[in-house]
């Protein structure tokens, strides 16, 4: 003889068994299970953009380090003890430091000739902090986004984060985990949300690190 | 935040999609939700469940985006605020998606093929190239788990 939960499971699976007492709730769940929104997956760039946005947000708030420092453990605790808080956000980074930063001139390609700016590059314990400040680069159209890359002379590219600039020309903070002495070109590409993780051919900005920025 | 996002990114995106119905907007809403959650972390009571807290932020964020997109300004004084359709099931979308994300991949796949794609067990078996009996047992286990995980929804 079936238990009440087995009976519910059977109804939830097929909808064809005799109706349990809580049929309406189970029908609602069946309806939700058939809804495409329930199964929708966030595009990969959301996570990257989120980390970049939070890292960027943490930069100008250096004067409130104690407050910020207390937030991350709390957020981790909120998730039920998950403690894998990203170390890069905890690193104490001040806004542009002339002595520590290598400044890279960024220029628009023929796809975005009016785009220009600078990338300040700094070695930190968490990796390479890249503060990208550009003007003249339009917000990414719906369904597209920008992606930063560092590129080696051997032709190997590594993604350093994504952004869309739909909120204006605010500086973007990107991160690289590879040695920039070997990956000395910085590119920005325009990517399509429906395409794969590899770099598109739509390179909109480029810059070259003038000398090995070793930490 | 990555761990938090890994756990709740799917349910938050599902809520955003349910309200906004558009991938790009839902992605924006999802990102804004987590940024707001981080900014509001000091208001969170660790004694309470995190799910309903971030759900409330996600729902509000998506509704705000929806309104920005659909606001009808009739005159300088009158601003008609619209509400998205289907709001009454958004909590269930969050809860069901949270439960689905906790299923083993093979069971989740069978549930999706059955409910979302509308395939029969035989069709699923052909599609996955596995015996029908395996599909039935995965389906049975998956729905038992869902019933267990969604008990509080059923009793709401």
Account of the 3D structure:
The complex is a heterodimer of chains A (about 220) and B (about 160). With about 220 residues, chain A is α+β, with helices and mostly antiparallel strands. About 15% of the residues of chain A have low confidence. Chain B is mainly alpha-helical and about 160 residues long. In chain B, about 70% of the residues lie in helices and about 5% in strands. Chain B is built from 8 helices and 2 strands.
Give a summary of the structure in a few sentences.
The complex is a heterodimer of chains A (215) and B (156). Chain A has 215 residues and is an alpha+beta fold.
Poorly predicted regions of chain B: 72-79
The gyration radius over C-alpha positions of chain B equals 19 Å
Assembly form of the protein = heterodimer
Please compute the radius of gyration of chain A using only Cα atoms: 23 Å
Order of helices and strands of chain B: HHHEEHHHHH
Can you give keywords for this protein?
heterodimer, A: 215 residues, alpha+beta, 8-stranded antiparallel β-sheet, elongated, B: 156 residues, mainly alpha, 3% strand, globular
Fold blueprint:
The complex is a heterodimer of chains A (215) and B (156).
Chain A: H1 4-14, H2 23-33, H3 36-39, H4 44-58, H5 65-78, H6 87-90, E1 102-108, E2 116-124, E3 127-135, E4 144-151, E5 157-163, E6 172-176, E7 185-192, E8 203-208
Antiparallel strand pairs in A: 1-2, 1-8, 2-3, 3-6, 4-5, 4-7, 7-8
Helix pairs in contact in A: 1-2
Chain B: H1 2-20, H2 23-39, H3 50-70, E1 72-73, E2 79-80, H4 90-101, H5 105-116, H6 121-128, H7 132-149, H8 151-154
